[in-house]
Specification:
Helix content: over 70%
Order of helices and strands: HHHH
Radius of gyration: 17 Å
Length: 80
Amino acid sequence: MDSVVNLWPLLGIAAIVVGFVLRFNPVLVVIVAGFVTGLAAMMPVSDILEKLGAGFLNTRNLPLILLLPWRLSACWSATV
């Protein structure tokens, strides 16, 4: 009955709060918080990358957000 709960993965919540309070890029904050949580939970880095990649691909709007500024700048430089 004496089971120990690992509370270290909750550091990811602290990383989210600190990142948003300091007004960092939200995508960067979420990625860093995912790594902090995964490492605190003693997950292998390959599993952390797999989970982050699957989450971003399932939402499908994040790649668009990341690629849109690059495409707009390429279109802008081509027309000028």
